Batch of 2 targets.
Target 1
Amino acid sequence: MSAPNASSDETPTRVWQEPGGPMLVEGPVEFVREDGTTVRSDRPVVALCTCRRSRIAPFCDTSHRRRVRE
Ligand code: FES
């Protein structure tokens, strides 16, 4: 399966994982949700939430930094 609107550019898009945090993607990014709607970010680096705690999903809002009291 290929990504929607996959590009044939020579330079690959760089994606990397912050330890315990978001997935960082070189922008701009157009994110396609499960329902087919899209959300766009024109930032040079876009942080995608991987912890599922973000209130602005699919983007990271730093909620992954909060610790739960034991
Ligand atoms: S990874 Fe940062 S809020 Fe989820």
Target 2
Amino acid sequence: MNDVIIIGGSFAGLAAALQLGRARRKVIVLDTSQPRNRFAGHSHGLLGHDHKPPLAILAAARQQLAHYPTVRLVNARAEKISGVIDDFSVVTDDHDSLRARRVILSYGVVDQMPDVPGFAESWGTSIVPCPYCDGFEAAGQHWGLVWSGPQSHNQVRLFLDWTDRLTVFADGHDIAPDIQADLAHRNIPVVDGRIVEIAHHQGHIATVNLDTGPTVAVDILFAHPRNKPSANLHESLGLATMGTPTGVVLKVDERRQTSTPGIYAAGDLTTPILPSVTQASSQGAMAGIFAQQSMLA
Ligand SMILES: Cc1cc2nc3c(=O)[nH]c(=O)nc-3n(C[C@H](O)[C@H](O)[C@H](O)COP(=O)(O)OP(=O)(O)OC[C@H]3O[C@@H](n4cnc5c(N)ncnc54)[C@H](O)[C@@H]3O)c2cc1C
């Protein structure tokens, strides 16, 4: 019997494995190698690893974990979970059936690309979600923001710390009159119409093209497409979730336990705002520690 099966071996899952391995617990990490930021050339904001390629950070973490004899990293997809605390069973796409006393869910979320030519091709290069991740490198340039709802108003105020050249793309949203007035007061142009194409050169945006005719040149576009959990294991387990402006996340308590005893969760799968590598790593480490402490004799 394993102590813990971790489902998703990226920033959150590997951080959990590190704590558990150091506590000499027997751990299996299942992973399908599709971290959310794999489209980005560089990862920013993680102390000690700023501006490194995300896949290089993960490769270094896996190399370090190889020194811990009780940690096993397995390249497989978890397809089914059953059981109760102290005796969970996880079936993989290799038809392996693994058992463990605890489970940590860290399988992240998938961003759903809109059906706009050029959008997916530019995602991670010049269309990005977060100014803390990519704002510094584009400071002072012409930014675009794709409106996704009232929460976008806060983004406008936030972005002004990086640039005063901002254009809002309404993209079919009705922006409330008081918000329109505030944008006008700040001299921020709002472009109506739906985005129908991103014209780009190898992911670097040239123009944002609208169904109303105009094309608008920007240097970088911030967008928040809807996302969904990368697997539906939490649904089959009936775990409690909560809605966010762009999707759903799992509910966890202060010890990172989900609504089912013995199942813990960490990373983007549980993070309603400002998901990041730092948050995922920190939450993963805590999930590992709390899972370990829940098994003390
Ligand atoms: C374009 C872009 C750029 C970003 N840039 C930055 C940045 O510069 N700095 C920053 O801090 N954050 C950045 N982020 C956010 C960052 O990517 C996430 O916060 C981080 O990856 C979350 O880590 P995680 O471990 O929760 O999930 P993920 O990194 O998404 O990893 C989930 C893992 O689970 C695996 N998996 C999924 N389903 C299963 C299954 N059924 N069985 C087994 N394995 C499974 C996946 O293959 C994947 O390896 C960026 C995000 C995007 C989209």
